[in-house]
Amino acid sequence: MKHHGVIDSPYGPLTLVADDGVLCGLYMTEQRHRPPQEDFGPRDDTLFGEPEEQLEAYFAGELKEFTLPLRLHGTPFQRSVWDLLRKIPYGETRTYGELAEALGNPAASRAVGLANGRNPVGIIVPCHRVVGADGGLTGYGGGLDRKQRLLDFENGTSLFQPFISRSRVHGPGRPPGTP
């Protein structure tokens, strides 16, 4: 059964979705390819302790690699692309062509881009680390501004201070915005 929770982040609220307790979605507001809200199941902000802790550590600049178990729903090709995304080191980028080549099909860069755009667990599966052949920003489900901000953050050129959510102050499991 699916459940969801919402946490604060420097990029706005993040909706976390779990399928039988395993993270299967992380969606930003106004995200392209965001499933309908009713597909997320009932809201329960208390179910996402470890994902929230790891995201807080990432946004505080303390975590470079997520170690959360994930249940990624997609085609075998999409899952192979998402597996490659998780191997892109923090602060580095790859092109769609490089990922297609790593999959053994250099002509599949467009298909890699489509799979990248359907990534159901943004940030944790770092699709923001994929750039165009010329190194420029291309498509991002959360918007190019967020993509640039995530890349700047990972490269140490971010304009915002490390993020500490309210749950660090008020305890885990507290819905965002609650005292």
Estimate the mean pLDDT confidence: 86
In this structure, how is the largest beta sheet organized?
A: 3 strands, antiparallel
Please mark out the parts with pLDDT under 50 across 5 or more consecutive residues, or reply none: 161-179
Strand content: 5-15%
User: In which range does the helix fraction lie?
Assistant: 25-40%
User: How far is the first residue's CA from the last residue's CA?
Assistant: 29 Å
Strand order of the largest sheet: 1-2-3
Tell me, what's the shape? globular
Number of strands: 5
Helix-strand pattern: EEEHHEHHEHH
* Total number of helices: 6
Structural class: alpha+beta
Overview of the molecule:
The protein has 179 residues and is an alpha+beta fold. It is 30% helix and 13% strand. The protein is built from six helices and five strands. The chain has helices spanning 49-59, 76-85, 96-102, 109-117, 144-154, 166-170; strands at residues 2-7, 14-19, 22-28, 94-95, 130-131. A three-stranded antiparallel β-sheet has the order 1-2-3, with no helix packed on it. Strand 2 (14-19) and strand 3 form a beta hairpin. Helix 3 crosses helix 4 (109-117). It is globular, with a radius of gyration of 16 Å. The chain starts with a strand and ends in a 9-residue tail after the last helix. The model is unreliable at 161-179 (pLDDT under 50).
